[in-house]
Amino acid sequence: MGTETEALKGFKGFRLTNMPKNEPLSPGHRACQGCGEILALRQVMKALGENVVVVSATGCMEIVTSPFPQTAWNVPWLHVAFENASAVVSGVESAYKAMIRKGKIEDKGVVFQIGRAHV
Ligand code: SF4
Q1: What is the pTM of this model?
Q2: Domains: count for the chain
């Protein structure tokens, strides 16, 4: 289990030339053209990488990225009610720790940030 400080060791910042090619939030979502929020979310997801679980409360970024039966998410993603995103992600963290403790999965140094929108 990593901390935010450990996760940022060796981080040298992002430039267009060293931007990851992977798209945790893929193109093909249904956001309005020129939407600043989806562009910011895409950059945040690129910075976080693929060892992430996204818990998304209801809102534009939830609606435009997950029109049933499609999804723009290439990482685990949960949609929850407005008021319980923090409680759900803390449950995800607890389950992650329990599965490591029981030897079911290896610790990949996932960082959990509770209390921020969309992640
Ligand atoms: S936040 Fe929603 S309504 Fe606003 S531009 Fe983005 S997708 Fe469109």
Answers
A1: 0.77
A2: 1
